[in-house]
Specification:
The complex is a heterodimer of chains A (372) and B (346). In chain A, 53% of the residues lie in helices and 14% in strands. Chain A is of the alpha+beta class. The two termini of chain A are 28 Å apart. The model of chain A has no long low-confidence stretch (mean pLDDT 96). With 346 residues, chain B is of the alpha+beta class. Chain B has three domains: 103 residues, Butyryl-Coa Dehydrogenase, subunit A, domain 1, CATH 1.10.540.10; 88 residues, Butyryl-CoA Dehydrogenase, subunit A, domain 2 (Beta Barrel), CATH 2.40.110; 131 residues, Butyryl-CoA Dehydrogenase, subunit A, domain 3 (Up-down Bundle). Chain B has 13 helices and ten strands. In chain B, the strands form three sheets. Chain B has a four-stranded mixed sheet. In chain B, strands 2-3-7-6 form a four-stranded antiparallel sheet, with no helix packed on it. A two-stranded antiparallel sheet of chain B has the order 9-10. In chain B, a hairpin with a 2-residue loop joins strand 2 and strand 3. Chain B starts with a helix and ends in a 7-residue tail after the last helix. The mean pLDDT of chain B is 95. The chains are: A alpha+beta (372), B alpha+beta (346). Bound molecules: flavin-adenine dinucleotide. Flavin-adenine dinucleotide sits at the interface of chains A and B.
Chain lengths: 372, 346
């Protein structure tokens, strides 16, 4: 077993660090956080620099980690314009890939994934947005909440109900459909006043009789729940990478602070706190890389993926909070306070920590009972 | 006991009327002048300032009730009272008591720079006295939007500056956003030395407000937990209210239990020794941090948005433990109380 990354991925990490040093400046981070502004120029530059390419998932994983280590809001904003792309990549047809996927992969367009609704995010099968088929189109009605890239995306992969489940199983009858953002009846309200990740764009989507061509249906009608769950299994590894970046960034700042103190001032209390953060980061990394290793070899292991996401998220919150305590006033008056605000989203989006725990134990129980 | 209950209902009634619906707006735009005036008119702003100095001269347990109940609604308003009634008033009491009536009445706002006391890396103040003038730029001034400033000089004196100050917002402002947090440029001929040993004076003040910080912390925890109890009754996932799920109910109930026990202790703090009050503060701040985290978490995505009024408790609990106290210093203080001599400093 070798714990070193191959040359190519180590190089991708270095490139991401170079980019972060050059482009993720404290001023930009501060401005986007204060004004809740999506840094589109940074997104474009990241593509031009060649560091955003989800076809090289390992490189993407370490890139996300390094960019979020520099600044979580900007790091996520620069890498999230393809959010939901895997649904089309895995289940879309060739026309959809060419028409929708190719431009986002080239950085020319932005997409989003719209699952959560005002009435609920954890309970995916409980969504209420409907798509009624009429001839060669779907008529969509409903609303989506907290959608990343919501006000700026060119289109969304949206989960909708296309039929009532005949067998009483709520996750049946759901479908994934590509919905362009500029259609009549489609309103998008930017959500402001987020605690953190304020450089990312978030919106509520309201759809009133929005007509979408039937050809925008992804894969088979009624299989949407399965597609979205498959997607979350992939995206959760990337969220874990965001969380590791936040934790590592917090630790970097702690070590810088401790180094600036006289040796007598670095008490064991402070040393132990730093050691705890560092240990949890290593554990998060190992879990995440293990999850990614399964995933990127097309042998996904949802149990490990959920463990990695939940643990890395918890670590991010722990690390940022501890870092604030250790650094005190100087941390509170530095970008660490932003890390603290940003970190909390890790335990909420793409499956809250509670939902991850449910997935983990349900899978373990199934295994124990010999059910596949 | 009855008096405390009456006071509590007075604060609740006041807060329902003046704060409740506006707490989120205060976080965005600052506490409006008329609300500060109203807080003062009720006798809350100058609660702990002696009556002959223009305050209400309320005893310490009554003062604790005010801080705690205000924090349930708006930790920022409570922090404003703490800064005015405890910190500024203690700093001004000896050398500038004539300023107390103005701050107790809310006529004048006083900014304080506590960084020199709370941050081990900051040893000196930024102000320089030269002849009859005082100049310099003071960072991290809490409540620094008025024309009074309490801060330290580069040679270690604690001073109050009256006028000749210009405030601009600090870049980072995590907690108590209803209060200004500013960088203050000073060029003034009107100042007074409050204490020759500024850092010691500020640390003494910080050590004397353990009960008050505990009150604020428990108010923050109560505000957050009240909200999450209501929310988890009505929010449904998988067709069941959140409160029906074991981990949700258990975590919230445990935190409520810890909170209630701490509140009961706080309510009988008159009989407590100083070190016990310090212990209660450390526990209370810890409860506040955990309670606010769970409250935010169980609100899901809504917890992450200002409009829902939960995230502010999370930010404030984090800032409380840094702005008004130093956790590592407190750990050593409590260790000294436990061992009877200096301990835990290596
Ligand atoms: C900034 C931001 C960006 C987002 N981006 C997107 C996006 O791009 N696309 C998208 O579709 N969604 C997005 N979301 C939504 C996010 O995924 C949801 O907020 C999340 O899934 C939780 O759903 P909810 O907010 O409805 O909380 P709820 O589902 O109502 O849950 C509330 C709380 O109850 C807990 N809970 C729920 N059920 C149980 C149970 N059985 N046992 C124990 N605890 C339980 C949850 O863990 C949570 O703590 C975003 C959210 C935010 C804040």
């Amino acid at each position: 077993m070798d714990f070193e990354f191959p040359e190519e991925i180590a190089r991708a990490r270095e490139k991401a660090v170079e980019f972060a040093k050059k482009e993720i400046t404290p001023e930009l981070a501060q401005k986007c956080d204060r004004d809740e502004k999506f840094p589109d120029e940074l997104r474009v530059k990241a593509f031009q620099y060649g560091i955003v390419d989800y076809r090289n998932p390992w490189s993407m994983l370490v890139t996300i980690e390094e960019l979020c280590r520099a600044d979580p809001g900007l790091g996520i904003a620069a890498t999230v314009s393809l959010f939901g792309a895997e649904v089309i990549m895995l289940f879309g047809n060739d026309e959809q890939k060419e028409k929708f996927l190719a431009p986002v992969q080239e950085g020319k367009k932005i997409m989003g994934l719209a699952v959560t609704e005002p009435g609920g995010g954890s309970d995916v099968a409980g969504i209420k947005t409907t798509a009624r088929r009429e001839g060669n189109k779907f008529i969509i009605n409903g609303s989506k909440m907290f959608i990343t890239n919501g006000a700026i995306a060119d289109f969304f992969v949206m989960l909708v109900r296309t039929s009532e489940p005949s067998d009483g199983k709520r996750h049946h009858g759901l479908s994934a459909i590509i919905v362009p953002g500029n259609l009549p009846g489609f309103k998008r309200n930017k959500i402001t006043g987020k605690l953190g990740v304020r450089a990312t764009n978030t919106a509520e989507l309201v759809l009133e009789n929005v007509e979408v061509p039937a050809e925008n249906l992804i894969g088979e009608e009624g299989k949407g729940f399965y597609y979205i769950m498959t997607f979350f299994n992939i995206s959760r590894a990337y969220v874990a990478a965001q969380a590791i970046g936040i934790s590592q960034g917090s630790l970097d700042r702690v070590l810088e602070h401790l180094s600036s103190l006289g040796s007598g001032a670095v008490t064991e209390e402070l040393q132990f706190a730093a050691a705890d953060i560092a240990t949890r980061i290593e554990a998060s990394r190992l879990l995440t890389y293990k999850a990614a290793s399964y995933l990127f070899q097309f042998r996904p292991n949802p149990t490990i993926t959920s463990m990695s996401k939940a643990y890395a998220a918890e670590t991010a919150v722990f690390a940022a909070e501890k870092a604030l305590e250790i650094t005190g006033y100087s941390g509170l008056n530095s970008d660490l306070e932003r890390f603290f605000r940003d970190a909390k989203i890790m335990e909420i989006w793409e499956g809250t920590s509670e939902i991850e725990k449910l997935i983990i134990s349900r899978n373990l129980l199934k295994e124990a009972q010999g059910v596949n | 006991m009855e008096e405390t209950d009456l006071l509590k209902s007075a604060v609740v009634e006041f807060s329902e009327k003046n704060i409740s619906n506006n707490a989120t707006a205060f976080e965005r735009g600052g506490i409006p002048a008329e609300v500060i005036k109203a807080v003062a008119a009720q006798g809350f702003l100058g609660a702990a300032i002696p009556a002959d100095s223009g305050g209400s001269g309320i005893d310490r347990s009554g003062y604790s009730v005010i801080l705690r109940q205000l924090a349930v609604y708006s930790p920022s308003v409570s922090a404003l009272v703490l800064i005015t009634s405890s910190i500024a008033s203690a700093a001004l009491a000896k050398a500038a008591p004539d300023l107390l009536p103005d701050i107790a009445s809310g006529n004048r706002l006083v900014g304080v720079d506590l960084s020199t006391a709370m941050d081990t890396k900051i040893e000196r103040g930024a102000l320089k006295i030269s002849g009859s003038r005082i100049r310099g730029t003071v960072r991290y001034v809490l409540n620094g939007s008025g024309d009074l400033l309490i801060a330290m000089t580069s040679d270690g004196k604690l001073v109050v500056v009256d006028g000749g100050i210009q405030a601009t917002p600090e870049e980072h402002h995590l907690s108590f956003r209803g209060l200004a947090y500013t960088k203050v440029k000073v060029d003034s001929g009107n100042f007074r030395i409050l204490d020759e040993h500024g850092k010691d004076a500020l640390l003494k003040i910080a050590d004397s407000i353990d009960l008050e910080v505990a009150s604020l912390a428990l108010g923050i925890a109560r505000g957050a937990l009240n909200k999450v109890v209501e929310y988890t009754k009505v929010r449904k996932t998988f067709e069941r209210p959140l409160k029906d799920y074991g981990p949700v109910a258990d975590n919230i109930s445990r935190l409520m239990s810890e909170l209630r026990m701490a509140e009961l202790n706080l309510e009988s703090s008159e009989a407590m020794r100083d070190e016990e009050i310090l212990m209660l503060k450390i526990l209370s701040v810890d409860i506040a941090k955990r309670a606010t985290k769970y409250a935010l978490q169980y609100h899901g995505g809504y917890g992450y948005i200002e409009d829902f009024g939960v995230e502010k408790y999370y930010r404030d609990a984090a800032g409380l433990s840094i702005l008004f106290q130093s956790p590592y210093r407190d750990a050593m203080r409590v260790a000294k109380a436990v061992y009877g001599e200096k301990s835990g400093y290596l």
